[in-house]
Each structure stands twice: as C-alpha cells, then as structure tokens.
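USER:
Make up one protein:

ASSISTANT:
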Amino acid sequence: TVMTSSSKLDPIPEPKTLTKAESMKLVHHLLVMSLGCIAYLRDFFAEDNFVVRRLIPERLLEHETNLYTSSKSGLKVTTLVKGISKEADKFLDWLDHGVLCCLKSGFLKGLSLGIFTDPQRPEKLVECYVFSFAYDENGYAGIRVGSDAEDRVAPVSTVLEARDTFQQLMRRFIILTQSLDLLPSKKYLSMRLIYSDSCPSDFQPHLFRDCTFDTPATV
C-alpha cells in the first residue's frame, strides 16, 4: 500500500509598499538614528543625553506617529533625547526642522557632519561623516553613507528595505569608528547640506544659512 500526503502552503505575502511620505519619514528616522549612533560612539554629548530604544518600522503602516517602543521587539538603537542639554537639543533641531524640510522637498542630495576643535577655524575638520540621498522616479527616498557617485543609493520603498538599510548603516558606523582615536573633550560640530541641481536658488531650510562662498571644510 502506498500512502501519500499533501499540504497546502500559503504564498509568501508581498512586502507592503510605503507611500512617498512614509518613505521620506523612514529615511529621516534612519538619518536621525545614524547620527545618534555616531554621536554616542564619538562622545559628542554626555551619556545621559542618550537612551536605548527599539524601532518598529511596521508602525508606519499602522499610521502610528511614534515608531519607537520600550519592549524587546524591533531594532535596537541608541538615540538622542530632548530636554537634557541645550547642545543636544540644538543638534536635534537641525535634523527635525532644517534637514527634514529639505528632505521632504526632494532637494537634499547630501549631508556632511563635521567635527572641529578650533572655533576660529571651523573649516579645519578632524572628522567628517557624509551621507548621500537620492529619489527615484516615484519619489521614494534613499540614504547611503559616503559620497561616491558610482555607488547607487537604493530607495526605501518597503519596511523590509528600511530594516536592511538600518542594519547596513549601523554595521558601517561601528566599523568606521572602531579604529579612531578618542576625540578631545572640547569639540564643535558643523552640518552642511548639499542640494540637488533642481533646488531653487532662494531655498533655505530653517536654522541653516547659505555657505556657498565659505572656505570649503576639509579633514
């Protein structure tokens, strides 16, 4: 006697596609988390300015305003919190008011975070972290570390892509900072935005000024 059995397998569901606005929001969160990670690893601020939280990108699909949770689910990340120091608050304001406006407009092509030690020479950097941004034909945004034009910036159009991008960024920062010397206790930060060619000449996000004719910052 030959016995046979069969089972019905459900198809793997397709990843849910984000809207353009959701893609922008996730890329902004990825940038904030990335810079928070760098700020923690390089001791930009005192330790009480940071908190360990979990990001749940799927909450975006549920129209939740807060993507973080204190539970053990989600992606573990060390983030800056407001209300502890005016320096960290100002840094977060750059991101939440100036950078987010530029990102939503579709004009943000690059971001440079510089560290310098002489307030009279802000163009002389001791460290610099560069992020590149791109937008596909559907308006989805993407983020990548570095400015190599030959490296493609993949758009974030699904939650799965956001998770993959986040994990790649965190690994990159840990590798980048492992071999660096300690920074001096007194240091200063600068942030420069690079706009796309389509950006109007009079566009200027909140808290930023035109530095076209300033001395180029170098390491």
